Amino acid sequence: MTTIRREEVGSIVKALNESNFLLTRKNLYSSIVKFCEALEKILKTPMIPSDEREIKNMVNELQGRLAYSRVFYECYGPVSFRDNDIETSLSFLKQLIQVKEDEIREEMERLSKEEQKEEKEVFPQAEAVRILIERGDYDLAREMIGDNEELLNYLVDYYNERGIAARHEGNCDQAISEFRKIVSICPDDEGLLYNLARAYIEKKDWKAAHETITEALEINPEFSEGKKLLFFIERNLKEGVAT
Fold first, then answer.
1. What gap in Å lies between CA 47 and CA 115, rounded to an integer?
2. pTM confidence score
């Protein structure tokens, strides 16, 4: 006799909700991986009819949101999922994961030819993490970094230096982009937020600069350079410099 464990249904619902949340954050790869995890559990889990109907409805709704999401469309074009066909959906999504992994491997091979030898030896994971960061898969990038403080410090230095170089060259948008990438990975670093605020100042986006340096000071209220920058920003806001 098959034993029905309704707590397993709860774990499926949780996985589907997590997949949906990741999709709203535009973390497409992570969303698809979590969706596959849920579909695999569905195929293995005996359910009472009411639970099965509810789960299938959730799957159908998530499939629809996935297919019509802009981030999915831009990656894979128009796709139609069949309602209530769990096995077909799982097989298709696994193919998408394989394509993504193949792309990452190809990109790693390309980047490895451009990187200095010592860098690759010390940080063999850095290239893969950078690819994820560049594609906006921040959750997965953080998972790969884990507790590796040395790797995290390397990535902070890498993007920080790129942002500073872009700002010195007058490329404010590029500087902001580089700083925001690493802030998404390391949001509690007041130094990164300070540099991001300075990039916003270069762009004359005083409101964004004020919000960013305020966030830095919430992390470290004793951040003296941050206090000075906040004073400078507020003075310019009061004098009507902000556009």
1. 52
2. 0.52
